[in-house]
Sequence to fold (90 residues):
Amino acid sequence: MIQTRWIVESHGHSVSEVFSWTVTNEEWQGLFRGNAIDVLKTIEQLFAFDQVKGYLISIEGRAGPLPSLPVSRIPGLCAELFSTLYTYLL
Fold:
């Protein structure tokens, strides 16, 4: 939260000044504003990653175009796409 606030609305203040302002005006809860959506997005990413990786491992060794793709990168890509689309549709 501090990094986002510092980038968006710091107006030349340092990170420590933004931190102090947040704690003074919004108490410690202000440091965690917007954190719930990040937790939800992380859970979605982990779920999508496991599902895609499990599918690709299950078809590994079969003939066809899909098994020739790199198994290490596809689950991460799918996880990021799925969680981004799902989060913003909510």
Notes: The chain has a mean pLDDT of 80. The helical segments are 2-9, 15-26, 35-58, 74-89. Residues 35-58 form the longest helix (24 residues). The chain has four helices and no strands.
